[in-house]
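Weekly sync, protein design subgroup
Attendees: M.S., D.O., the rotation student, P.L. (late)

Item 1: inverse folding check
M.S. brought a backbone from last month's batch and wanted to see whether the design step gives back something sensible before we order anything. D.O. pointed out we never logged the input encoding, so this time it goes straight into the notes. Structure tokens as presented (384 positions):
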């Protein structure tokens, strides 16, 4: 099965033509394709349709058999569950149109999806996927994101060191989402999604969302919803790194979430509820132009002033945008030192400040790091 999948994918990428498929590259070696592990997976419907070998497996989500969870939520028979190498996904999403131009990796992801569903029709612009296919499309997307973050941070631990699969609930109806949040997380939310980390053993890290609710506020369509899921799953990964028994500074966590979201698609900006009110300056697609003008006018507050803020909601509008740019700069120019910074988060004995961690990884103070970033912005953003 794995060999056939690899051959089909290679053939699919070849048929797409050189330069036409934008696939993810290794974050530490931009000329090297990233190996993305999205197999093996378990999906009861795939077993029924003979896409994978029959096997006995019980999937648990929210610490109970998923079948019991579906009854508690009063889900109809159309719900789907998939266990991937690093995620458990419960989906009630419907069909969707997915266009190649939607997001950066749409063509490559649809070609991967075709290895699961060989009869999937890819037209000149993309494909229409049914509910089952769409659930597996997100299976591929989140595993691609996981593979990139694991490679970036050189983390080879199972689940990045967390105790269990990451749980992702992609729900169509707001009522399903609200019931799940009320009954299992103890909080109802009017927002489109919740990231939740449970530190009680057996611990787990999960993300809940409602496409219906997200579409009401941010616009409908798989392209926008996909960006939202990417942003939110990035939160899970940085928090799950080495089991999340600590806080992650707001600039690092939110900057990384925006980094992954904007790698996919820059015209659909995502702000989660923890950030507070979306900053008006960064509702436009061209964040680099906004940041360049802030730097040019000396309106960018030094990282030394806000690097210790723990929650994204403490960041100002300008600091939210700067977080993205600083994290992007570090990831793309200093991935090894960036990893050293992230690993220092889990120095529980010394409990370092953000300033101490920056000094540990880069050998300079936050203020000096900010000055170096400003030079990079002036040299690179101003030319665009």
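Designed sequence read out in the meeting:
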């Amino acid at each position: 099965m794995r060999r056939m999948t690899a051959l089909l994918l290679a053939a699919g990428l070849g048929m797409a033509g050189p330069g036409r498929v934008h696939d993810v590259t290794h974050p530490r070696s931009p000329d090297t394709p990233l190996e993305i592990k999205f197999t093996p997976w378990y999906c009861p419907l795939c077993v029924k349709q003979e896409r994978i070998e029959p096997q006995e497996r019980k999937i648990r989500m929210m610490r109970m058999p998923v079948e019991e969870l579906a009854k508690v939520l009063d889900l109809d028979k159309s719900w789907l569950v998939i266990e991937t190498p690093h995620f458990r996904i419960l989906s009630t999403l419907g069909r969707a149109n997915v266009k190649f131009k939607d997001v950066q990796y749409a063509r490559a992801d649809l070609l991967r999806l075709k290895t699961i569903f060989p009869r999937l029709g890819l037209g000149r612009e993309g494909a229409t996927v049914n509910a089952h296919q769409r659930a597996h499309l997100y299976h591929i997307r989140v595993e691609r994101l996981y593979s990139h973050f694991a490679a970036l941070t050189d983390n080879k631990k199972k689940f990045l060191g967390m105790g269990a699969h990451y749980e992702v609930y992609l729900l169509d109806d707001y009522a399903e989402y609200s019931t799940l949040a009320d009954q299992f997380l103890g909080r109802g939310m009017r927002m489109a999604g919740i990231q939740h980390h449970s530190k009680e053993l057996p611990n787990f890290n999960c993300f809940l969302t409602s496409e219906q609710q997200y579409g009401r506020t941010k616009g409908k369509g798989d392209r926008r919803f996909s960006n939202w899921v990417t942003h939110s799953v990035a939160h899970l990964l940085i928090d799950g790194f080495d089991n999340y028994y600590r806080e992650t500074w707001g600039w690092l966590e939110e900057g990384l979430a925006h980094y992954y979201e904007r790698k996919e698609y820059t015209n659909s900006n995502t702000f989660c509820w923890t950030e507070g009110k979306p900053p008006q300056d960064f509702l436009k697609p061209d964040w680099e132009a906004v940041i360049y003008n802030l730097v040019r006018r000396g309106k960018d507050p030094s990282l030394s002033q806000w690097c210790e803020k723990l929650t994204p909601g403490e960041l100002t509008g300008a600091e939210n945008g700067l977080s993205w740019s600083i994290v992007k700069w570090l990831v793309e120019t200093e991935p090894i030192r960036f990893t050293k910074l992230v690993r220092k988060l889990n120095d529980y004995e010394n409990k370092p400040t953000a300033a101490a961690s920056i000094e540990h990884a880069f050998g300079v103070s936050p203020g000096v790091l900010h000055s170096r970033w400003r030079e990079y912005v002036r040299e690179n953003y101003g030319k665009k």
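Discussion: The mean pLDDT is 88. The chain has 15 helices and eleven strands.
Action: P.L. to compare against the previous round before Friday.
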